[in-house]
Hints:
By secondary structure, the chain is mainly alpha-helical. It is 45% helix and 5% strand.
Amino acid sequence: EFIALLPATSLDGAAILAEKIRSTIEQEQIIVNHAISLSIGVSVVLLDDTDMNDAIRRADKNLYMAKQQGRNRVIS
Length: 76
């Protein structure tokens, strides 16, 4: 897992970028024994968050929702 911080980016903008990354990974011709997919959870820092961990927890929750819904998708 990794985190990408995107300052001054809306939730929609982050989701669009995440989908571009996911789609690019899916289309790459990487030599492996199976298809590569990517599940991504997206979140933003809200005004009432007490710290960055609140946004990270939401993104993590969205990541696991993406995996539960069949993987290879973006949930924001």
